[in-house]
Write a structure and sequence with these properties.
Blueprint: E1 2-15, E2 27-36, E3 39-47, E4 58-66, E5 71-73, E6 77-80, H1 82-95, E7 105-108, E8 112-120, E9 128-137, E10 142-154, E11 160-167, E12 171-172, E13 175-176, H2 180-187, E14 191-193, E15 209-212, H3 227-243, E16 248-258, H4 264-285, E17 293-300, H5 302-311, H6 317-326, E18 330-331, E19 336-337, H7 338-344, H8 349-357, H9 359-363, E20 365-373
Parallel strand pairs: 6-7, 14-20, 16-17
Antiparallel strand pairs: 1-2, 1-11, 2-3, 3-8, 4-5, 4-6, 4-9, 9-10, 12-13, 15-20, 16-20, 18-19
Helix pairs in contact: 5-6
């Protein structure tokens, strides 16, 4: 057995933003952020003043956590004008397609939305910022209102409580246990021991199983790219591990991301549909429960873009990498963001190349990682 010290974090922050935001004209109050063990909880109350959102418009609000090198988008909020709400109700009655399922948080102008969400904690979040991005959508146009910071120095002052726990030693004297799962992991790189578990699956695009989707589609096409062999390998690996006497699958992470130029709403909807279909496929074909499957959907895949750029010989490659690494998703003080900086680089030549060559890959791929215990 091996003695390991694990640090549990319980961090609470609060801010009062009851005064109306002067630029986005949002009234946000009772803002709190908590870190309990490895979970981040963000909560606040949001009220959009009357007449801020035009009657026939939708206002999409996208909270996100960020620092200079990384970001995490949180579930978005939909605020509807009166005519937009009426139009949606009419659409639901005539088509039976209930779009309300696509937004966890919704409200009308003048109403208060109680927002609470939980996300896995990552080390880069310490000292980061919480911001909110606004997009005004009408029948034929979309206007960016920009972003505003809601809180700074998130989780910067940590109160740490150390607790010693005993965990089973996986590696002993440099010799890996010769279990079924460990043997399979040598051939299937998407298999990993549970102590490497990452529910967000943002650390790497190397050791994952990739399923490709056609542009704008959410059905699994086994004849597209190498999908058939990938699905065969996935089912074979999970079945082999769970049918063994020395290993068990503990978790499956399915992640569908978006490309930088897509709207947050579209990315979320398409990624949600694709990841849910793959989740159903795994449950139907493998001895695994729904509770063991973790879903990520809709986040902009900056890491995936960086990986594609780094592997390429595209023009202005190193300037693009520098922008991705050092320019925040949105800098409210300078009113500039990572995407707009990329678009302006060298007259937009590198951006147009990425738009054609890389962005479709980011939009049309879902990544799967399988974790096991011995």
């Amino acid at each position: 057995m091996k003695r390991i010290v694990i640090i549990y974090l319980l961090i609470v922050g609060a801010a009062s933003l009851a005064a109306q935001n002067t630029r986005l004209q949002l009234n946000i109050s009772d803002l709190e952020w908590k870190l309990n063990e490895e979970q981040v909880e963000i909560s606040f109350k949001l009220r959009t003043p009357l007449k801020v959102v035009k009657s026939g418009h939708h206002l999409v609000l996208q909270p996100y956590i960020f620092n200079k090198k990384d970001s995490l988008t949180l579930p978005s909020i939909l605020v509807q004008g009166k005519k937009a709400e009426t139009s949606e109700k009419r659409h639901i009655l005539t088509t039976g397609n209930n779009k309300k399922e696509n937004f966890q948080f919704r409200g009308k102008t003048g109403q208060t939305v109680n927002y609470t969400t939980v996300a896995p904690y990552q080390d880069w979040m310490s000292g980061g910022r919480l911001a909110i991005y606004a997009l005004d959508i009408s029948c034929c146009d979309a206007i960016e209102w920009g972003s505003e910071n809601l809180a700074v120095d998130l989780f910067a002052n940590k109160q740490q409580v150390e607790e010693e726990v005993i965990v089973e030693e996986v590696v002993k004297k440099g010799v890996v246990k010769n279990t079924t799962a460990n043997k399979l992991a040598a051939d299937y790189r998407f298999l990993a021991p549970y102590f490497e578990f990452n529910p967000i699956n943002t650390d790497s695009r190397e050791d994952v199983l990739t399923i490709y989707f056609r542009q704008g589609k959410d059905d699994i096409d086994r004849g597209y790219h190498n999908n058939n062999q990938s699905l065969v390998d996935l089912v074979s690996a999970i079945r082999s591990v769970n049918q063994s006497t020395d290993s068990r699958v503990s978790a499956v992470v399915i992640s569908g991301f978006g490309s930088p130029e897509g709207t947050a709403t579209f990315n979320e909807q398409l990624a949600e549909s694709r990841t849910n279909i793959l989740k159903e496929f795994v449950i139907l074909n493998c001895p695994i429960s729904s509770e063991q499957i973790y879903i990520n959907k809709g986040w902009i895949d900056w890491l995936g873009l960086r990986t594609l750029v780094e592997r390429s010989d595209m023009q202005d490659k190193y300037q693009v990498l520098d922008i991705i690494d050092n320019i925040p998703v949105w800098d409210a003080s300078r009113k500039v963001g990572r995407l707009s900086t990329l678009m302006k680089l060298n007259g937009g030549i590198p951006y147009r190349y990425m738009l054609e060559k890389f962005f479709p890959l980011l939009r049309n791929t879902v990544y799967i990682k399988v974790y096991y215990n011995n």
